[in-house]
User: Fold this.
Amino acid sequence: MVNPRRLTAQPHGEIRRVFDDIFMVRGRFRMTGGPPIAFSRNMVIIRHDTSLTLVNSVQLSEAGLERLAELGKVDNVIRLAGFHGADDRFYKERFGATIYAVAGQVYARGFGQNVSAKDQYFSADVEIDETSKLPVPGAMLETISSARPPEGLLLLEREGGILIAGDALQNWATTDPYFNLLGKLMMRAMGFIKPFAIGPGWLKTAKPDPRDLRNILDLPFEHVLPAHGDSVIGGARGHWRKAIDALQLR
Assistant:
């Protein structure tokens, strides 16, 4: 759920290297406007020379921002998930970052669907689609345009193919310390806690065409860095094939 403003960072872990010039950090997200459900989310950091691009942004603490500065300068933020983006404005205001969002996504209170102008609190600098030039060399965008709001996946053409996902591909094999008790109970009951999954909440709310999900299997990737759950290093396309094929049978 998009939150129009967060004054302080929520708890998060250390920035860790996943591949050369690709890093991840995991933090907490607490839902607003309802039960106090908290769960984890991941931000991917891509470095090119001294420039950093953040994907699935997570606001870091001052100590975390100091570590981020050791990696390079925050120049860009890419929003992949239509239901994410709460911390994009922070990086715009703090670093002057250019904000890229999938065409059709809006920054609004709630889940950003059927919103009026008064609900929108922020706008991306650049709207992107599959034909757009991206700020990351050797990257391409895959869009799930049938989802409402639209969803993106970012494919990096290195290491056999690295796919960065928002809500579409999740890998919460178990809960972690960034869940609160209510989050653990609710997310298990709602079917979120399972490996190599298509995000169940996203499926229910965004209602993507299964054919768009089937197209994911045509992408050349070996690894998935999801916004929710653990990274999958090696064999990722095969792991998600079962979940995607199952959707075709519905």
Notes: The longest strand covers residues 38-48. The radius of gyration is 17 Å. The CA atoms of residues 50 and 149 lie 33 Å apart. The helical segments are 62-71, 88-95, 181-189, 200-206, 210-214, 236-248.
